[in-house]
Amino acid sequence: MKKFFFVLFVGLIAAWGFGLGFGWFDKPKAKELKTIGGISPEKDYPVTEYKSFAIVLCAEKETAWLARSLRSIFEQDYDHFRLIFINDGGGEQVSEIVQKFVEENHQEHRVILMKNDEPMGEVACLYRAAEQCLDREILLPLSSRDWLAQPNALSRLNRAFQNPDVWIAFGQSIGYPTYEFHAKGPHCFYSALFKQIPLHDLYQGGAFVQGVSNYVQPLLELSGGRVRHLEMPLAFANETLVKLAPPSLLPLTPQEPLAQFPSPKLERPRADLMVFSYDRPLQLYATLESADRLITGLEKTTVLYRASDDRFRTAYAEVQQAFPQVAFISQGSEPKKDFKPLLLKAVFGSPSEYILFAVDDLIVKDAVDLHSCMEMMEKTGAYGFYLRFGRHVQHCYQAGRPQQVPPSLPLSSGVYAWDTRSAELDWGFPNNLDMTLYRKVDLRKPLTSLRYRHPNSLEFDWAQDPPNKAIGLYFEHSKVLNLPLNVVTKTGNPHMNFLSVAELLEKFNEGLKIDIDPLFQAENASPHHEYTPEFIVR
């Protein structure tokens, strides 16, 4: 028996040694980042260009170290930089201290002051700052508790970025008051690289992610190895304040390395409008008239319509004559069978990259430039731009009760972003036919795979298939509203029961139209707005 255990022991030792030799018991290695071949980020280049830096200084209520942090920035021996200071919910005192320090040091020409009413965190501040920056500006995030280690910090960074293979630079830091060197320190990167990160990776559940790792990891993936590690301290890391444990890395969309430096598209994207109409030529006329008057940036407008008899077909022909630039597609004798194929052909047969869907009781009530909407969608990676929403939309007409404007992120140009998964009622339906701007590439799969026979079933089935990453954009004031005058199919939705489709057809045949002028910039608390229209000669 002793001999048996001895042999077994020797065998286990041998197996262990054999396993060590082949690495069976090694700790699992972290997944290596993909690297672009043929790059040399460690190579030094002569200084032939003065790069533009944007130092992003984020401050909350703590003001004890503000002056030291600002002084280290203004004392740089490098002149090609500016400071974006963001008061992150710190109150008026923080803004006053910074404003006074900037004026006393005559630095007004290089400082942008921004403010968040509530604390949003460093990542949110960085995102807001990046919106103000050119693609080739180099962002240097810095906490107001820390400060640059030496006056030539920016000069040294400029030298590193002379190498075209450097898109990100990491420096070391010095702990204060221990004065110990730390390999982990400040980092800086091109603004264009940061803008490639989809907003839905940074803004989740109505709040920004916390912790720099949640944006540094995507930056590293995008850079493809174009990273420079500097053996120099860039900043003092303040250790006198209690710091919470860093947040864990959230699930992120894997990023493929960029083959070349990101640059804006040379051609502006294009957008189409498709309007669905059924036995409502008079209401369709108002929709098309308001869109023609107030929407710019439309490439092509198509009306997919259904007429129950010759009276309505004749009226639709008159609408078509009034808007000759609009393509009209008539459904046939089997409308439940031809709706889907006609829709798919019209949407994906056009080369435009974006699409707006609309129903014939929508009115455009304010001017909107779709080019600016598409630009914001390109910048943020948002799923849709919702023209029916605004900060004033706080009532749900269909549910008959108030609804909360969801937590929203203010962007530039009066645009806000929100996570549709954290919203309710109207705000919680990312898929709709109420003039929301979508990318066609995002719609090909659902529109092709879903089984629908008319606009109502399309909207219902589509609503059951929400997108995984549903960041929506909207203007401070909505651009469209829905006039629920009547219904043409039994949907159960509330409406005004104002006039039937037959009665409205009579008014249209009398040469009348809805007067849309009083609806210009109308204040509506809900996307559906009860309003008794006036009829005028068209």
Overview of the molecule:
The chain has 538 residues and is of the alpha/beta class. Helix content is 30%, strand content 24%. The strands form seven sheets. Strands 1, 2, 3, 4, 5, 6, 7, 8 and 11 form a nine-stranded mixed sheet that branches. Strands 15-14-12-16-24-19-25-23-22 form a nine-stranded mixed sheet, sandwiched between helices. Strand 22 and strand 23 (415-419) form a beta hairpin. Helix 9 (281-294) packs parallel to helix 10 (310-322) and helix 11 packs antiparallel against helix 13 (440-449). The termini are far apart. 38% of the residues are buried. Residues 1-30 have low confidence and may be disordered.
Tell me about the largest β-sheet: 9 strands, mixed
Give the helix proportion (percent range).
Answer: 25-40%
- Strand percentage lies at 15-25%
Number of strands: 28
* Average pLDDT metric: 90
Could you list the spans in which at least 5 consecutive residues all have pLDDT below 50?
1-30
Number of helices: 15
Assembly level: single chain
> Whole-Å distance between the termini?
108 Å
- The coarse overall form would be elongated
**Class of secondary structure makeup:** alpha/beta
Q: Measured on Cα atoms, how large is the radius of gyration? A: 30 Å
